[in-house]
Amino acid sequence: MENQKSSSKKIAINFGIISGLIGVTMGVIKYVMNWHLEQHPIEIFLGIAITVTILVMAFNQFKKSSGGYMSLGQSLKLGMGIILISSIITIIFGYILMNVIEPDMLSQMQEIQMEKMLEDNPNMTQEQIDVAKEWSDKFSSPGVIAAMQLFIGLFFGFIITLIVGLVMKKSDPNAA
To answer: I want to staple 20 with a disulfide (CB 3.0 to 4.6 A). Which of 34, 36, 86, 135 is the partner?
Structure first.
């Protein structure tokens, strides 16, 4: 059992780092291509595909190290460990990007969001615009952004891990 715990921890760390580095690589590519200020729908699908692939690889490795078996609980623990490590790595990269590499990135993103909002709602009053700007300012600090990224990453990571874990679990018939 102790060997299984250390194996699970090692797998989570290794695949969490791999997943995080893939996220950072994607972030660097977006920055170099000047796509870093907007989210494109394909990014969501690509992120899900990468996450599922990483989880499948990690779960297969875990099952090999545990006689071919993995419970749903084990898959959730392993998957969430991977998601947490990956999220932390990408959050650190995002923080460096927003505060060191591109310090005016937040204001650029806010400007783009405000332009889109005004384009979508051309009849907004100045008071509504001011309130929207105020709310945008509240949620645009690096700490709030990091917390939201972590929460969103863990939430959707849990859902993806649960689905992949349900598909890949295999109960040990000899377990009590």
So the answer is: 86
- Give one word for 99, left, alpha or beta, with left for phi > 0 and alpha for psi -120 to 50: alpha
**pTM for the full predicted model:** 0.84
Q: Which residue has the tokens 């394909």?
A: 42
Alpha-carbon radius of gyration of the chain: 20
Q: Dihedral sign, CA of 68, 74, 80, 81?
A: negative
Please state, in angstroms and rounded to a whole number, the distance separating the CA atoms of residues 72 and 140. 37
Q: Which amino acid is at 102?
A: E
Helix axes 72-96, 2-32, angle to 10 degrees: 30
| Sequence-separated (6 or more) residues with CB below 8 Å from residue 93 | 23, 24, 27
**pLDDT tens string 51-93:** 999 999 999 999 999 989 999 999 999 999 999 999 999 999 9
Separation of alpha carbons 147 and 153, rounded Å:
10
Handedness of CA 59, 55, 94, 107 (dihedral sign): negative
Annotated domain spans of the chain: 2-168
Two tokens, residue 22: 């893939």
DSSP for 106-154 reads: HHHHHHHHHHHHHHH-TT--HHHHHHHHHHHHHT-SHHHHHHHHHHHHH
* CA–CA separation, 67 and 6 (whole Å): 15
